[in-house]
Amino acid sequence: MHKIRGARAALLAVGILLSISGALADNKTIRIGVITSLSGSAAESGAQMKAGIDTYLRTAGDTVAGKKIEVIYKDDTGPVPDVAKRLATELLTRDKVDILAGFIFTPNALAAASVAAQAKKPMVIMNAAASGITAKAPGATRVSYTIAQSVTPLAEWAYRTGSRRVFTVVSDYAPGLEAETWFNKTFTTAGGQVIGSVRMPLATTDYAAFVQRIKDEKPDAVHVFLPNGQPMVSFIKAYREKGLDKAGIRFLGGEGWGDEDVLKAGGDTLVGIYSAGFYSYTRPGAENGKFVDAFSQTVGGKFKPSFLAAASYDGMAMIVKTLAKTNGNTEIGAFMEALKTYTSSSPRGTVAIDPETRDIVQTIYIRRIDKTPAGALIANEIEKFDGVKDPAK
After folding, report:
1. What is the CA radius of gyration of the chain?
2. Topology, domain 148-283+365-388
């Protein structure tokens, strides 16, 4: 009997030791759950996000405050809020992540925000750009940009540099409507006139009729907001074919016009257009040069970093540097308090977090697509707006 009791006591002691050692091992790891698109129509964007994160950890190291950083990637397959919500729940309850991150799409970020809020976990938004997201969870912080933050300087610049009558054309979805609202509001406040606005169905592939209508209205400029990638290329080709450039109608775009896929596909049709944004891989500066080189090593030279990759790189930098401040404490109160004073240099310039809104504060550049003597297309930064906050808050 005593032997049995002794055996039970020994087993109990082993169990306690295993439990303690497991807790200690867990204590030595900080888990970050990233929800992004690894398949489907947005897989290229997901690859950019993953490569940006991986580049930071590869160059800066994957430990902080003596703890190992483990990143767990989950595939949302595209703009599917129900999937994003399920993945956020799985990451927090099954994988025991300390921080949620990623989010290409606004609907997915909004769905996950409710889960993060309930679990009282930090959430770092690396792309989704609708202004209201950070208000949905007390631990939500955005390191990318908002639509309003990008188009407001563009509208100010357009008026200041001579445009008085503008036509706006956007894809009919939430980001497009936000771009239309904030550009038009800013431009008319400055004294300009919006002589027409068109919302195109999201599935549009032939833009000829819309472009012809713009030409017929004879504006000084056209403000365009489209989903990144092929829609942008198709539209700019129609703009050239219909002769809007020759008619003196200045082209004003948003973020993404300086990304490699657009520059390659659009070619010389892009030369001379203007856009506003926070990053292009062609921007000058030693810090961006180092980032582009490191990124190339991460992906084996397969593609250049997009604005999404730069934001994801900065997002992981922010997480790691904030954890260094908290000595590895991921508790939402400590993490968010440390973020209030966050500022850092970055491939895009100096960035900070607005302590009131938890959104990024950054420089927005006005870029013109130019062709170098060597024949390369670059997003040439011709003016900048420093310290831009999200005007929607």
Report:
1. 23
2. Rossmann fold (3.40.50)
Contacts of 43 (CB under 8 A, 6+ apart): 37
The span from the CA of 367 to the CA of 351, in Å, is 19
As given in the structure block, the two tokens for residue 262 are 């657009």
Q: How many CB atoms lie within 10 A of CB 337?
A: 15
**Are the C-beta atoms of residues 129 and 146 closer than 8 Å to each other?**
yes
Token pair, residue 339, equals 């973020």
* Side-chain half-sphere CA neighbours of 309 within 13 A: 28
Residue-wise over 2-25: b if at least 16 C-beta within 10 A, else e? eeeeeeeeeeeeeeeeeeeeeeee
One-letter amino acid at 193 equals Q
Q: Give the residue from 235, 205, 234 showing the smallest Cα distance to 223.
A: 235
N-terminal to C-terminal alpha carbon distance within the chain: 72
Structure tokens that stand for 342 in this block? 């966050």
Residue type, 386: D
Residue from 311, 225, 284, 277 nearest 385 by CA: 277
Burial of 260 (0-12, 13-18, 19+ CB in 10 A): middle
CATH superfamily for 29-139+285-361 is Response regulator (3.40.50.2300)
Task: Provide the residue ranges of all domains of the chain, joining segments of one domain with +.
Answer: 29-139+285-361, 148-283+365-388
Partners of 344 in the β-ladder: 351
Decide: 227 and 251 in contact? Cβ < 8 Å: no
pLDDT over 70, % of the chain: 93
Neighbours of 205 (CB within 10 A): 8
Identity at 41, one-letter amino acid code: S
Helix (H) or strand (E) holding 344: strand 343-344
Q: How many C-beta neighbours within 10 Å does residue 322 have?
A: 25
Distance CA 282, CA 345 (A): 17
Can you give the pLDDT at residue 27? 80
CA angle 196, 197, 203 (to 5 degrees): 145
Longest dimension (CA), the chain: 100
Q: What is the pLDDT of residues 1-51, one digit of tens each?
A: 444 444 444 434 434 333 433 343 458 999 999 999 999 999 999 999 999
* CATH fold match for the domains 29-139+285-361 and 148-283+365-388: yes
What DSSP character marks residue 24?
H
Overall average pLDDT of the 51-56 stretch:
99
